[in-house]
Write a structure and sequence with these properties.
Elements lengths: L2 E4 L18 H15 L1 H12 L7 E2 L1 H9 L3 H19 L6 E4 L4 E9 L2 E5 L8 H14 L3 E6 L8 H10 L3 E4 L2 H10 L9 E3 L4 H10 L4 E2 L7 E6 L5 H12 L6 E6 L2 H14 L6 H11 L1 E4 L3 H11 L3 E5 L15 E4 L5 H6 L25 E9 L1 H17 L3 H11 L5
Parallel strand pairs: 1-12, 5-6, 5-8, 6-7, 8-9, 10-11, 10-13, 11-12, 13-14
Antiparallel strand pairs: 2-7, 3-4, 4-15
Amino acid sequence: MIRILKDQDLQGKDILMREPIRGGVEETVSGILSDVKQNKDKALFAYCEKFDGVKLEKLEVTQKEIEKACGSMEPRFWEILNTAKKNIEAFHRKQVKNSFVLTEKSGVVMGQKVIPLDRVGIYVPGGTAAYPSSVLMNCLPAKIAGVKEVVMVTPPGNSGINPAILAAAKVAGVDRVFQVGGAQAVAALAYGTESIPRVDKITGPGNAYVAEAKKQVFGQVAIDMIAGPSEILIIADASCNPRYVAADLLSQAEHDANACAVLITDSEKLAKDVKKELETQWHPLPRREIARASIQANGKIILTDSIERAIELSNRLAPEHLELCVDNPFDYLDAIRHAGSLFLGKYCPEALGDYLAGPNHTLPTSGTARFSSPLSVDDFVKKSQFTYYTPAALSNVAEDVAYFAEKEGLSAHANSVLVRTIGETP
């Protein structure tokens, strides 16, 4: 079911994780984007019927409909949603950055303004599984940042939108909800339609068509990242319980047949025991066929000589999720340079981060953790800078600025400074 490889079998190749094959996706998405841009709501209604099998009369979900859905939720789920909200808000409030001003005695004032985005669109998947957790993880940081309006899009089902998603939207403070998904939803957010307002930024995960649509509209609108299939990399030592490790690998494998679940260990016994556990644990899973397909296609167990070598491989791969299931995990924390989100110790499964812990679960995939970060409050603000000089302060630096400008062959730049200090064009 899963391959056990030795470190030397890698031969310097990045074979542990791969991006899905997307043949034909680009062209299909391009056509959908053009159609929605031109035909707006008419195109959205047609795509909902074509792709979701739902014939809609309207796109926006009313507050009455949201309240009705919320009324069907059991009290325990409300408690959990509010606990998750509390933890997510506590973590993300620490990310808030303030504007600043620097005033110098020479008559110079400089500063930076931190400005929330006006309107953000969040995409919430609704295909083979519903993700109310994604509502919280995308909306709450935006609200903390001060975004004026958060618009949510999510695919409809035959019975409407999953009530759990609408409950999460209520708890998170989503301002407007629309029942539309896929590339067409991304197009609607990017270009605007009669019903759906144009946004400044689109965040949230989706399938290959959603990811490609976000890629194609980037520049017309900002996006958070191009997310690929889910990934988990577990570094485990000989003392780990193989049942725990196998369970954590399967927790990501059940997301998608293209998901990637990898174990790196310095224990051959653990490797063999985890392989046996995978064979046992996948059978009772409701999504076992998806999990099995993922493990067979992309699952691997890598044997190394040491945990230090495992960390070297991990840094090369820059996984979305990294579980450091070893004794004294904090001893290794500084050595981890590239990972979306880290889970430390043997009692911190990745699922904690998906739902309740507080750190964001919208993470860089496909090795992009080498240069990008988890979704945060920073994603929902922009910055402007300002400068002020008194006449005396300008005179103090005018000749230096003009000299620098002339070095670049830009005499008009030099003149714009000198004309203010010598009173006439030189």
